[in-house]
Task: structure prediction
Amino acid sequence: MPELHFEDKVALIAGGTGALGRAVSAAFAREGARVIVTYRRQPEFDGFASQSKGSAHGVTGVMVDATDAVGVARMIESILANTGALDILVNTIGGYHGDKRIWEEDLASYEQMMSLNLKAGFVLARAVIPVMIRQSRGWMVNVASRAGYGQSPGAALYAASKAGALALFDSLAAELKSYPICVNSVVPSIFDTPANRQAMPAADYASWPKPEEIADVILFLCSQQARIIHGAAIPVYGRT
Ligand SMILES: NC(=O)c1ccc[n+]([C@@H]2O[C@H](COP(=O)([O-])OP(=O)(O)OC[C@H]3O[C@@H](n4cnc5c(N)ncnc54)[C@H](OP(=O)(O)O)[C@@H]3O)[C@@H](O)[C@H]2O)c1
Result:
């Protein structure tokens, strides 16, 4: 991979203490970016922060519910007051719900899927894109899912929420065509996380992409070298 330079960049990683979020945060910190992660549970952030001490700027955290527009606006104001810029937003927030057919589903599960997989990205983008427009600079990557392309029996709500996210960021990219801001999605199938190993103990983990491998793709998408990639949905299925 060509050398990537993030020393002068401020990166906000939403869900940055989750399985993929940790790898993404660590990758940006390793490359010298100033990294801010969102989290919801203090012990999860404390565990992550103690592992990230060796990086150039360390990693700071903000406890926020990313679906809360007021809380997110406050967070962005505070980041700008502390750093003066916000160059990169990676949204790794999301969650899975399945094993039910549509007619067996309840409304609470519908709301939860839309909230995690669609609303959080909308609230974050809505707050951050105006900052990037003012700066005339920015990169955003949203993490979608292969399920968003449909045909996911037993996981229709998850699939619909991820399809919505793909459409949302594709449309955002079209709206930003004349601005120097790159917006892309990455589209994982399954990847190697402790939760997936626990849920599928008999699976062949070796074929699953590692979070660090997906993080490298995201890093590249946020680099100067990838500036012609805009409005893409990059599959990171590996061989799954
Ligand atoms: N794992 C897979 O195989 C797979 C496959 C395809 C796509 N994806 C997508 O990849 C992304 C990352 O997955 P992952 O496995 O790394 O998930 P994860 O470990 O569950 O991480 C998600 C993170 O988002 C946080 N979060 C959830 N709701 C939030 C909210 N309202 N505000 C702020 N933070 C919130 C979670 O915090 P809490 O821990 O406090 O809930 C968690 O730290 C997700 O979008 C997922 O749908 C995953």
About this structure: Helices lie at 19-30, 42-51, 69-83, 107-135, 156-175, 194-199, 211-221. Strands lie at 10-14, 34-39, 59-63, 88-91, 138-143, 181-188, 233-236.
